[in-house]
Specification:
Layout (H helix, E strand, L loop, with lengths): L1 H34 L6 H19 L3 H29 L12 H14 L6 H19 L6 H11 L1 H16 L7 H6 L4 H8 L1 H13 L34 H12 L16 E7 L13 H7 L3 E3 L12 H8 L10 H4 L9 H6 L4 E6 L8 H7 L3 E3 L11 H8 L9 E6 L13 H5 L11 H26 L6 E7 L7 H8 L15 E3 L7 E3 L8 H9 L20 E3 L5 E3 L2 E4 L4 E4 L15 H21 L1 H7 L7
Parallel strand pairs: 1-5, 1-6, 2-8, 3-4, 3-5
Antiparallel strand pairs: 2-7, 6-7, 9-10, 10-11, 11-12
Helix pairs in contact: 1-2, 1-3, 1-5, 1-6, 2-3, 2-7, 3-4, 9-10, 17-19
Length: 649
């Protein structure tokens, strides 16, 4: 009998260790699938052991039935959440955030299932291992009911508690000494850091815990006291706002007043007012990239990419969730964080610097169009709040909707106005890219049949042929109306084509390129009357579009109120990525590897430009991210308006 009891105790101990193994397995599986061997598995596994140990110890405490339910429910939740993180990352290339639930569970489910389909059948390996091991654990406990008795549970507690305790001690020691870089694992706990870094460096269970804690206790995500806004421009002028004259404030408002008041104001450049009094058409192109530009397949886009303003170093920034790219373009601010639905949140704030408000006050007719349903990404309320008349004409029977049909149905609504500013949100480039799954790809399938590309790439080019036809139709309509030479056209992507990472590597010839090299994209800025092209080598991103357009249109504004800077100005370029990385004209900081790299051929400063040191760039990048966050959270423009501070003129 004693040998039988001892054998059962060993089985119970084995079952508890198997429970911990299952939680560790989910971390290892997710990490290897998402990041291959990039990054250490040590911290994710240790977090899993600590979390699993705590849940298991709670499950072994009385009452026994509730403990059993807790253990098995936690296993089921672990499996589902791991698949959720996997599918979400596969769909949007970023970490899952609970705030996306405000956009609807059905939309989230469709995106996650799409992400899982993209990783099929590899991801089946995880449930194939997880489910049988869980079944063995259930059978083991159900076949040995003695584990429900308190004496046996007490002995199990004595045997198991050293595992989570030792894991917690090792984890605490490693985190305490891992403080060399601002985004090292130890500093992730001390400072605000992007959710995606928690996912990659600490594991999805730690990332989920942090995300849930911030949602339940908003005070945890308060002001980042280590952020600053140092002056960065080569030339300074007096700003439109005297921050020293504002009332003394505490908290985030006080931080904004102090930091913005000491930042440099961009000096005027020779392009200011070059297109004063011109119309403005902005095309926010879904998943647009240089891969869509071809002299034969997309000749109009090709023509625009070879004339006008040639922005050679335009980057998307990894804010891939719905509305993030649009928010940056229309506000000149970075999103509050990854997947924050900042565009939707802006509907409840003062958007004094949005082009719909600024140009509308100058007599422009400001309208925005999309073929997608009005509430997509919260656009309807957000764009109305930004001063646009927003409408979504139906293009029935086409999935995704046709950009060409969208332009055909709307162009005559504004061509009769003296001044107009129009924003088009395109849809033809919406993934997935396949001739069976994308109606726009199917429409142009015959045209791309002879291209020496993969089927996915041919489908992507074919989908963007519809965008090309739409831009061509728009240009012809403007020409017939006699206003083409008085219209500035801007085409900017809202994000990278997320499902084409392998194709991007193949087309660039660099299979092992850094992730940020895959963010290099294309922005087209064109006017038909320009006789000479202007080459811009400065690094830039979507937040720099608004100040650039305001410079060209002759709009006076205080540049300190935006996170972006004019790409035509004198100051250095700075691109802030969603994961905390940044890039200047001289070097790149990779937050994933905590590594600063100087760009080849960038040993000396460009003539006539100020150059940021690595320390200045780090402080400025974090400062602009924090500034953007607090402007949205505090409704800062409303505060300035209440205090009669000067905004655009």
């Amino acid at each position: 009998m004693e040998e039988h009891a001892a054998h059962k105790k060993k089985l119970f101990t084995l079952g508890c260790l198997e429970y911990l193994l299952l939680l560790c397995l989910s971390e290892v599986f997710l990490h290897l699938f998402l990041f291959s061997l990039g990054g250490s598995l040590l911290y994710p596994v240790l977090f899993a052991l600590v979390l699993g140990g705590v849940i298991m110890l709670l499950g072994l405490l009385p009452p026994p039935v509730l403990g059993a339910i807790l253990l098995f429910v936690s296993l089921l939740a672990n499996l589902l959440l791991a698949l959720l993180y996997l599918g979400f990352y596969g769909a949007w290339r970023t970490c899952f955030d609970l705030s996306v639930l405000s956009g609807g569970v059905s939309a989230l489910a469709r995106g996650v299932l799409s992400g899982l389909r993209g990783l099929f059948p590899q991801w089946l390996l995880y449930p194939a291992l997880f489910i049988p091991l869980t079944a063995c654990l259930v059978i083991l406990f159900l076949a040995n009911r003695e584990w429900l008795t308190f004496p046996v549970r007490k002995q199990l507690l004595r045997r198991i508690w050293p595992v989570p305790l030792l894991s917690a001690a090792v984890l605490a020691a490693l985190l305490f000494f891992s403080t060399g870089d601002i985004y090292s694992p130890g500093n992730l706990l001390r400072n605000r850091a992007p959710q995606s870094l928690w996912l990659q460096k600490l594991g999805w269970e730690a990332a989920f815990g942090k995300n849930a804690a911030e949602r339940l206790l908003p005070g945890l995500s308060g002001l980042a006291g280590d952020s600053a806004m140092p002056g960065e421009d080569a030339e300074y002028i007096e700003g439109l706002i005297d921050f020293s004259a504002l009332p003394e404030e505490d908290g985030a408002i006080g931080w904004l007043n102090a930091n913005l008041g000491t930042a440099g104001v961009a000096a005027p450049n020779k392009y200011v007012g070059m297109f004063s009094g011109y119309n403005l058409v902005t095309v926010v192109a879904e998943s647009f990239s240089p891969l869509a530009i071809d002299p034969d397949m997309t000749p109009t886009l090709y023509k625009l990419s070879r004339s006008g303003f040639l922005l050679e170093n335009f980057y998307t920034t990894g804010y891939n969730c719905e509305g993030d790219g649009e928010y940056m373009l229309l506000t000149g601010l970075l999103p509050e964080r990854e997947c924050s639905r900042s565009l939707e949140k802006s509907a409840g704030t003062d958007t004094a610097l949005a082009p719909g408000r600024v140009l509308g006050a100058r007599g422009y007719r400001c309208c925005a169009y999309s073929a997608l349903p009005p509430g997509t990404g919260g656009r309807d309320q957000a764009l109305s709040n930004m001063g646009y008349t927003y409408s979504c004409p139906e293009t029935p029977g086409q999935t995704p909707p046709s950009d060409l049909e969208l332009v055909r149905l709307t162009v005559n609504e504004y061509l009769g106005d003296d001044l107009f500013h129009v924003v088009y949100f395109t849809a033809s480039g919406t993934p997935p890219y396949g001739f069976e799954s994308n109606g726009m790809s199917a429409k142009h399938r015959a045209s791309v049949a002879e291209l020496n590309l993969s089927e996915t790439m041919r489908a992507y080019v074919a989908a963007n042929m519809e965008l090309d036809r739409a831009v061509e139709y728009l240009i012809n309509a403007l020409y017939r109306a006699g206003v083409l030479d008085r219209t500035l056209i801007c085409i900017v992507p809202n994000r990278q084509p997320l499902s084409l990472a392998e194709e991007i590597s193949a087309r660039t010839g660099r299979e092992n390129m850094s992730w940020y090299e895959g963010e290099k994209s294309a922005m087209l800025l064109w006017n038909s009357a320009m006789t000479n092209s202007v080459t811009v080598k400065k690094v830039c991103s979507a937040v720099d579009v608004l100040p650039t357009l305001y410079d060209l249109l002759g709009v006076r504004f205080d540049s300190r109120l935006l996170a972006g800077r004019s790409t035509l100005g004198y100051g250095p370029g700075l691109v802030c990525f969603a994961n905390g990385s940044f890039m200047t004209d001289q070097f790149t900081y990779d937050s994933v590897r905590c590594e600063m790299r100087r760009k080849p051929g960038a040993e000396s400063a460009p003539e006539g430009k100020n150059v940021l040191s690595p320390e200045q760039a780090m402080a400025l990048a974090r400062g602009r991210q924090e500034m953007s966050r607090q402007v949205l959270r505090t409704d800062y423009y409303a505060y300035l308006r209440e205090n009669r501070a000067m905004l655009p003129s």
